[in-house]
Amino acid sequence: MMSSITFSFISVVNFLLQPVRQWLESLKIKNHRLARWICTIIPASCPFEREIKWGDRTLVYIPPLCKLNPFYEQLVEIRFKALMYLADECGEDVTQFC
Q1: What is the pTM of this model?
Q2: Stretch 70-88: mean pLDDT, rounded?
């Protein structure tokens, strides 16, 4: 059970991060070079997930840590907007970014 102090801290952090989240969500992609750069810099999948094996046995599993990023959802959305811009507006084949 979360204490009221923990809940209060999370609420304050969410309140402080909300303007940045809204700004990221409102971004419009209207530039070919920017869209390509976004698709290049934001990975298609979480790069941190790892499974360390010895033979058939999994010794260590490191879960994807991307969801700990407070802007994860917004970054995924920006990448999607960039992909859609390149595909729909520029007619570019975006399979290289998938």
Answers
A1: 0.77
A2: 95
